[in-house]
């Protein structure tokens, strides 16, 4: 059976002090035994956050990694460097990385491969833009993004998928539970029944329950609402 999972993506927000406080508050929250939880702080705050969540049920993730093992890649962080810091999850191909930093399907697949080789759990982010949805290309885009990793060995269920319609990220527009479920069901046909598939895009405490009640939505990837421990905990506890 697939365990429900909720991951907070803090993006490039907060200060060292405020993120320590946030981590402390998340760790002290009353979180349901049914849900797996992780937070992805800014890279420089990973060790400080790790200190705060040590020994609790809150796992540690990062927002990206390098696809390379080591070498002359100024500014990059390898998968092994992440495992050394106690990181378990790593987002691969978040839409902001694809759109703002030019990450390609091939590069995202290489990141998934590097993460798996180091024993990390990659969270492969996929999703269509507004224009792609309007053009009726949603499923074709999702399929292309997932096919890029399907050739890798043993990629699912070790990899988590996060379906995040780009038009719903940080916009306050959420896919309806039915719209999301339709895409999740399609993703399920590609990645199999054991793979956790998360929904992301303007998830809040007020809409999480409805989304998480859908048969193929196994939890969420939470941006803005993860910056407040109370709302993040409420979202975590909204899982089935
Ligand atoms: P949002 O972000 O919840 O603020 O829409 C989700 C994400 O980017 O992962």
Strand order of the largest sheet: 1-2-3-4-5-6-7-8
SSE string, helices as H and strands as E: EHEHEHEHHEHHEHEHEH
Helix coverage percent of residues? Answer: 25-40%
Q: Structural class, from secondary structure content?
A: alpha/beta
Instruction: Note poorly predicted spans.
Output: none
Termini gap: 13 Å
Average predicted local confidence, pLDDT: 97
Bound molecules: 2-phosphoglycolic acid
Q: What's the shape?
A: globular
Q: Tell me the number of helical segments per DSSP (H or I, 4 or more residues long).
A: 10
Q: What is the β-strand count?
A: 8
**Describe the biggest sheet?**
8 strands, parallel, barrel
Strand content: 15-25%
Report the C-alpha radius of gyration, rounded: 16 Å
Structure notes:
With 240 residues, the chain is α/β, with parallel strands linked by helices. The protein is 40% helix and 15% strand. The protein has ten helices and eight strands. It has helices spanning 16-27, 46-53, 79-84, 95-101, 105-117, 130-134, 138-150, 177-191, 205-212, 229-236; strands spanning 5-9, 36-40, 58-62, 89-92, 121-126, 160-163, 197-200, 219-222. Strands 1-2-3-4-5-6-7-8 form an eight-stranded parallel β-barrel, surrounded by seven helices. The model has no long low-confidence stretch (mean pLDDT 97). 2-phosphoglycolic acid binds at residues 9, 164, 169-170, 200-203, 221-225.
